[in-house]
Amino acid sequence: MKLRLWAITQRGRRVANEDAIQFTGGPRLEDEGVWSDVAVSLDENGIVAAVADGVGGQPDGHLAARTGLQQICMRPIAHNARTALEEAAAAANRDVVGLASPLGRPASTLAGVSFSSRNF
Asked: Please, are residues 78 and 118 in contact by the beta-carbon 8 Å criterion?
């Protein structure tokens, strides 16, 4: 089974876009733009679609957003969704906290959904 996914991100009034969107098995959308008609194979390992937004006013918000997505989107989620998501979120948080510098600690929001052929 294939899922067709679309995403768009816009920087709005900001100078830089701190948004990032990623699908398991697909490219990460980091700059303003649109993906249309991305087909991703759905199997029992599942697919995660996630969006992250760097927190304004913090250093390296764009880097925090991209770093968090890496942990969420590279793991199979479907077999034990709750545990897998908790572990992925904890790993994403550790990675983002590890970006701290003398300028401060970057931060990001992170939200996503997962799908599995086991759910259909």
From this structure: yes
**How is 40-76 classified by DSSP, letter by letter?**
EE--TT-EEEEEEEEPTTSTTHHHHHHHHHHHHHTS-
From the list 56, 72, 74, 54, the residue with the least C-alpha distance to 64 is 54
Write the Ramachandran bin of 60: left for phi over 0, alpha for psi from -120 to 50, otherwise beta: left
In contact, 69 and 52? CB cutoff 8 Å: yes
Q: How far is CA 54 from CA 37, 83, 96, 117, in A?
A: 26, 25, 11, 31
User: What's the pLDDT tens digit per position in 1-26?
Assistant: 777 777 777 777 777 778 888 877 66
pTM of the model: 0.75
> Two tokens at 106?
């970057």
Pairing between β-strand 28-29 and β-strand 2-9 as defined by DSSP bridges: unpaired
Residues of the chain with pLDDT > 90, as a percent, come to 3
